[in-house]
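Review form for a predicted model. The reviewer records the input and the model, then writes brief findings.
Reviewer: anonymous (R2)
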Amino acid sequence: MKIGLQIPDFTTPGGPPRLATDLATVAKTADDAGFEFIAVMDHFFQIGAVGPTEHEMLEAYTTLGYLAACTSRAKLITLVTGTVYRYPGILAKIVTTLDVLSGGRAWLGIGAAWNEEESRGLGIPFPPVAERFERLEETLQICLQMWRGDESPYRGRHYQLDRPLNSPQSLTRPHPPIMIGGSGERKTLRFVARYADACNLFPGPELARKLDVLRAHCDSEGRDYDEIEKTCYFIFDPGLKGEKTNEVIDQLGGLAELGFQAAIGQVKDVWQVTPLEAIGSDVIPAVASL
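Model under review:
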């Protein structure tokens, strides 16, 4: 079982003047502690589940570029990119750039997007859900084509690229791993089976059934179910001094029994740093063999 840190909240004790320094400290601590992933959300406004809309929110890929310079080993990913926020060819270039400058540590986390409020607020077109999924599929096809080095024109319903050139190419070959986030059974999990290297699901009583649905889609697509890395969103609360680490280990054991290989999510009181250290010293070694 691998562990990943997602940083969803940038309203820090020191405020914006200290945000860069505090963020670097958190990222370096997680990197040194053995976290497999460091992730951020792809939002421009804070989301209601985390805090008020007006709270501080950093742009995802600028932040990951900064974190690439602050770390040396953890994989870097958005959990997950909103497909309508960037043109597909530009997104492929962004992730490739992150991969090259991080020494081959970029992943593409992506989903159909859902936050209409921030899209309307910033003037980003936000089509109906069916069209967003069409655009998601074309984005996946374009990224994969560009990472193959195929410069032939792409002609989709929503995107037309005359020459999808990608130079330099990603260091990660054949391409940065693709993680699709979401648990929709008809489209999202089918796209996982067709295009992705990993999925990310939210915890809940239906997790086992969602994996069964994914397995069925893999059978239909002729895909090896075991090739896909199963990750689950997880809120880590080891306690300020690590007093709850055994509870966290037990919970992660339950996910491993279901077939998940990684848990990625926010760490409570992360800006205090000590919870990260507790996870590194007590949790990561305990779950490494699960």
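Findings: The chain has a mean pLDDT of 97.
Further findings: The longest helix spans residues 129-148.
Recommendation: see findings above.
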